[in-house]
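Appendix B, Record 12. Input sequence as logged:
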Amino acid sequence: RSPRPRADCNMTISSVRVAAERLRAVGARPTPVLRSDWVDATAGCACYLKAEHLQRTGSFKYRGATNAVAGLDAASAALGVVCHSSGNHGAALAAAAAERGVPCCVVVPRTTPGAKIDNMRRYGARVVLCEPTQSARSETAAAEAAAMGGAAFVHPYDDAAVLAGQGTIGLELAEELPQLDAVLVPVSGGGMVGGIAVALHALRPGVRVIAVEPKGKGLGRCLALSQRVLDPEAANGALDTIADAIRTKCLGPTPWAAASQLLDPAVLSVDDDQIRAAMRIALLELKQVVEPAGALTLAALLSPAFKQLREEHQLRHVAAIVCGGNIDLETLFLHVRTGP
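Logged structural output:
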């Protein structure tokens, strides 16, 4: 693997261990690892599907949000918390805020699926809609935080406490699956992939951390050029993908600092048809309902690109993060009924 310029991630394995203790304190348990003979045979290796869609609030985001809220001092927490989110981080922050007894406001793009908005409100969030651009999300969240008297802003991925929380997935993988050769991680803003990379680099440095992206993101080129943002103007928009939870085009500065150092240079890209097919396989073979983003790594495991990577690096034991399961029935039926 070619060396890349170092950057300051401001996060260590100690931070991940602290996050794990905070999660245990609120009763969160490690998520299960699912197996399937069919998936193993089709992928050509032993596959371990880390079921983050079975985490509280239906996604891995609960980990980072809980760690961030738990780390606030009493005075800051009392003013409440604010975030912008495509849905899953918002629900997670609302749940974490409710557990601490503080108010929560979530700014979401107006294109957010209704099931995810309902999920946020169910956990107690006040939901504010905005235009589906990064600038609109940031500006609206800042205005809401000010209106609440200075509420703490918890970024969905560009926050060291959030990264440390997501890194507890890597901690669990290292403890449960010491035989791993690689782990496939869905990527959007980079909080999960960055946190997992830091944890596994410290505990199992031989494990390859391989990002999986929706087609068109271009993370592989960013890594090759050591450049976080290739097109600043386009970065304000959203990826055109059915995976609504992972439409962010660029990694945030904080996760990029980890990713640019620690990720495998190979990035697997999957298109919408591959995602739909993986959702059907999750339903039929695993008996699990997952949202499109949650099917991303399963789609990658079954792809020709993974076969080539597996053969090139002799990958025999591979984990894949199933990141979320928040989807309404109509959208689920639409996706599993269509496609190749």
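Strands lie at 33-34, 46-51, 81-84, 104-109, 126-130, 152-153, 182-186, 208-214, 268-270, 317-322.
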